[in-house]
Amino acid sequence: MFIDSHVHLADPAFDDDRAEIVDRARAAGAIALVCVGESLDAARRAGDLAMRYPGFCHFTVGVHPHDAADFVADRDLAGIRAELARGAVAVGECGLDYHYDHSPRDRQREAFATQLAVAREYGRPVVVHTREAEADTRAMIVDAGHEGVRGVLHCFTGSHQLARAALDVGWYVSFSGIVTFRKWNDDELVRLVPEDRLLVESDAPYLAPVPHRGRRNEPSFVPRTIERVAGIRNMPVDAVAEVTTSNARRLFGLA
Ligand SMILES: [Zn+2]
Ligand SMILES: [Zn+2]
């Protein structure tokens, strides 16, 4: 049994066989998928999936840092609020990506701050994408955390300091198939997250774990990541599946 805490199931990559992807996820032991809306458009489609698969697919709504330049709070907040009212379980993914810098950094910070504020207002958790933006991410999530906002650093590969800062304000850390890659070299990061803050995710269609690396990813591959995390932490595979499932339930408020 597991929960995929981050999958882009509304992505066009799944347009031809989405129903089979859901069937395979269930057959592999998934009991829920958190379908990420990384744009208002994606969130609407993810929300439709949540309606089609009630209790199994859940959805989030946010604007990805790559698209922050197009984020206009006066216009887009209404869309975010509408999806939260329709049952989105979290705000995001949002955050800061200074690796690609697809949007100017000040616009990224502005869009992220606005989304942290709306999460606080609605009492929902935040799904955070962060890459090479350690100091700003830390400052913003620590401030939000002190105001009661909870969230997850998704697909996390950043520094131990940033992980600790997030954990210190009650946040969670999620690992993807990256931990199965041959080039992965930070097992200590996987070990420093306490059992009750650990999540796993596919981030599909991206980042398929070994031995599927390079192919389109899907939620049914998450057990490969769970096995790797279990190996790194020297825990039984079932125990990792169990704690990550209950953590995802708690963070996202799933039944
Ligand atoms: Zn991301
Ligand atoms: Zn994502």
Structural account:
- With 255 residues, this protein is α/β, with parallel strands linked by helices.
- The protein contains 9 helices and 8 strands.
- The chain has helices spanning 18-27, 40-52, 73-85, 105-122, 134-146, 160-168, 187-192, 222-233, 237-252, and strands spanning 2-7, 30-35, 57-61, 90-97, 126-131, 151-153, 172-175, 198-200.
- An 8-stranded parallel sheet has the order 1-2-3-4-5-6-7-8, with helices on both faces.
- Strand 4, helix 4 and strand 5 (126-131) form a beta-alpha-beta unit.
- The longest helix is centred in the middle third of the chain and has 18 residues, at 105-122.
- The two termini are 15 Å apart.
- The mean pLDDT is 97.
- The chain binds zinc ion (ZN) (2 copies).
- Residues 6, 8, 36, 38, 93, 203 line the site of one zinc ion.
Physical arrangement of strands within the biggest beta sheet:
1-2-3-4-5-6-7-8
SSE order, one letter for each helix or strand? EHEHEHEHEHEHEHEHH
Bound molecules: zinc ion
Tell me what portion of residues adopts beta-strand conformation.
15-25%
Poorly predicted parts: none
Helices and strands, with pairings:
Blueprint: E1 2-7, H1 18-27, E2 30-35, H2 40-52, E3 57-61, H3 73-85, E4 90-97, H4 105-122, E5 126-131, H5 134-146, E6 151-153, H6 160-168, E7 172-175, H7 187-192, E8 198-200, H8 222-233, H9 237-252
Helix pairs in contact: 2-3, 3-4, 4-5, 5-6, 8-9
Bound molecules: zinc ion (2 copies).
